[in-house]
Structure formats: C-alpha cells, structure tokens
Amino acid sequence: MDDLGESSDTCSVCKEDGETTPGTVWCTICDDVFCDGCLKLHKKMPLSRDHEVIDLRIHSNEKPKAQRFMCRIHKDEKIKLFCKDCRMAICTVCCSIKHRKCDDVETIDTITPLVKERLITETRNQEKKIDTYTDNISSTNSKIEKLSTNAQEMKDQVQKVRMVAVDVLLRKEKKLLDRIDKLTETRVQELKAHRKSHEIDLQMHQQRYEFIDKAVTSHCVADMYDIYETVAVASRDEDTREDKRPIPSTIVFTHDTDKLRRYVEEVQLGEVKVVGGLCDRTSSPVLLQTIDILTFYDTLVDVAVLVVDGIKVMVVIDSFNSRLHACYTSNNFIQKCLDLPTHPIQVAKVGGARVAVTLPGTQQIAFINFDPEPTLLSTVKTNRKYYGLACLNSLQLVAGGNDSRASVDVLDMKGNVLKSINTGVIKNPSYIHVTRNNNLIFSDAAVKSLVSATCDGEVVFTYTPTGDKALKCPRGVTTTSTGDILLVDGYRVIQLTESGQFVRDVLTQHGRLESPRGICLDDGGLLYVTNDNHVKVFVFVKD
Question: What CA–CA distance (Å, rounded) separates 357 from 443?
C-alpha cells in the first residue's frame, strides 16, 4: 500500500490542465486518480465505464500499489490488447509484429471483465473441487482409522477361532491321556494279580522242595518212598492241569503323523477378503476388460477365479469343445487349455489351487489342479448325471442331476452320496451356489425360478416373479460379500437381497451383454460374466 502524498492525491485529468483538484477515487485499470467530476466523464467513456474504481476516502486516502500491466517482451509498452487466437495479453508492438495474421484481437479493457468473470467462475469450480477432495480426504482418513480398528477386531476374532481349534485339540489330548491312565491302571492291576498268583505258586514249590530235600538228606528209605508217592501224584495232577490264566496284554499308542498333518492343513480358521463393489448397492458396473477365449462357439458356460501363488487365474468352462481354459493375469496375460474327457458344465472351487468340474456325459466329476498350469488330477464315477456343482466344505460337494427328483446330492470327494437335499420346485439345477451362511441357491431355466434352501432341505425362499420382473432364463448365480445374490437371467444380471427381494438390474443388454451364462465375483470385487466367446470383467464405481 502506498500513501497518497500531496503530489499523488490530485486528479490526474485536472493535473493535465494545471489544476490541483483533490482526487477521490482510483481506477485499478487506468492506474489514475480522479476527482468526482472527472469520474463522471470516466464512466461515460465506453472503454472505461466498466473499470473497477476504489473510493480513496473509504480507504483512508490509501490505494493499493499500482500494478502497471507492462509487456514482458517490450518492457516500456503497456498491455492494451488481447489476442483470442493465441489467448495472450499483448501490447500494440506485439500486435503489429507477431499477431498480424491473427483474426480476433480485442482491447484489454473489453476482455478484462470477461476474463474476470471466467476466473470467478473457475474459483467457484475450484472451491467445489476443494470441498470434494477435502470430503474425500476426510472420508479416507475415517476409512483408514476404521481399517485399523477393523484389523484389530479381525485379529481378535482369528485368535478366538484359534483358541476354539486349540480347545478341540486339548480336549482330544485330555481324552487320550485319560484313556491311557485308565487302561494303564487296569493293566497294572491285572499284572499285580498275575504276579500274586505266581508268588503263591512259587511259595508252594519252595515248600515242596524243602520237604523233598529233607527226605533225601535224611537217608531214611521209608520217608523217601512216602514222599515219592506224594510227588508222583502231584506231578500227574500238574501234568493234567493246564494253566489257563491269561497273560495281561500291553498298551500301545498308534498314530499317523502324515494323516494328522493333512487334516490340520485342511482346517480353515477363516478367510480374509477385500470387499467392495456392490456392498453399498449404489455402485455401477464399468467395463474394465474383455477377455477373448480361444473358441469359436457360444459355449462358455461357467467361470471361476482363484489365486495360485499370488497369480490370479480365471477358469472358464468351454462346454462344446470339452475344454477348460485357464487365463493368468500376472505380468503378461497368458491362456492355457486343458482338454477334458467330455463336455463340462459347471466348475466349483474346492480349496487351494484345485477345482472340480461336472462331466455329465460320462457321469464323472473331474478334479483339476493348478501348479500353475491346469493338470487333470483324477476323475470319480457318480451314480447320476450331474450338471450343477458347488463346494459345500473341504470334504463335501453338492451336485444336481438330471432326473425327476426335486433334490440335489451331497457327495464326498470320492463321489459317494451322503444325503439328498430338497430343492423345492427345481428338479434339474444347472447352477448351484453355496452362500456365506452355508445355504444353497439353485437356478433352473426350465421352471424359470430361483430357490434358496438350507443344508437340511428347508426352503428359505422361492423367487418366481411375474410381470416385467419375471425370469426368462435363469442361469449362473453368485453372492456378494454382504450376502446379496447376483443372477444371470436371459440378457441381464439382476441383484436380489439375501432373502430373495429384488434390488435392481445390475447389467442389461444395453450394457453390452449378449448371451451371458456363468458369473462370479473375485476377492477384489471384480465381476466376471461369460458372454459369447469372451469374458467381460466389470469394476464397480460409486455413482
């Protein structure tokens, strides 16, 4: 701020006429001081009527430091023009030399209000962005704090689960130790009784020995014959009497360390996942990637995603070509194929780097391992043609056959039927899914329904809507981390609540779905849908 002294507080226009009229305002554009009279003339001029002026009487005869807008190239020339073509403020010299061919040049006085308005608008935009980013940062900080708290809660839960597992082992240990003590005590008592019996026999034989020895050493012939007759009789009795007393058995502890290790390795304390995407039901799918599969027919019927040694593997079932495709998404995208004995239908993750696949044509279930390339480990024979398949736990599968029974079978890993579960109106489920609560979900295009049931066969809900929401061709089904259901139906993917209430259409034919069948979500919340001869991958973003 510069104080206006006697030489600078006079009107600039009056000063040119030799007058010293006190100035009352200062023009920020002209950088001149005007009296009230000259200000009226200043405002009447078309080029200066919109200039911003400052009342020096309000600002205590102080005005901001004059900012003379001078050309950067021609230091002595004031900026008087603006070239719209080049978007540059220029002086008259610049205009005559470098901007002669430009078509749109305005005076700086004309363009300044527009520039100022534009900058004011931009400041408002920036304020909105600042508010948005501030809110995002605040939200992120809250999420970081929540993650830290959640991490500790999850660690506490893991420790509690571990304590449960350890408690089971300790109880088994105590049971074995108690059995060892009990059996040992019983055997000790038996052995003591056995010892007592032999001690009595020993005493009897010692007495007989002494009696015989005395007769022999006495040299009395009569005594010797008397004892001889007694000994002969006793010897005959001992020869005819058999000692039938059982010899007490010993105690052994048998164990299979390798078997125990396998069982322990199968124990799952829990699973840690990164969830996102559909959790808040306000996110929309955005196509992230389209993965072309090496096939010429629309027969990609199912898809699953697993992680093998830190590498994400997408497993795709190609029914027509009797083939399994493995797509690896590490540094370089790679596809591997595994030919199967017959047409596969559904794939189920069975833990670790293994999947199971139904082969209804040969009444088999195939087990495939990824190391990381797919390898056919084994096939098991089944009594029915199974199409739908899901993994119930590390030791059991759920499979749906093609017959008149409205049920699915629970199998062990050798294909033996353990029990059957009611499926309600669905007889031939082509797709089966196990929820986070161990409930089962079945879809069937023939009856156009979706059924959820417990492992005991109690129907949780049957989804058979009518009207506009009626199912057309229900196929692949999966669930989100919060339990919501995603169902492929015709040319769309719909979202239901865990209890079977309609939420929304997640994907439609307008979302570039043409013939979807299989569907799955990975641990990162990415959605995979088979579509013609490729797989579409979607990421969910906030609306």
Answer: 18
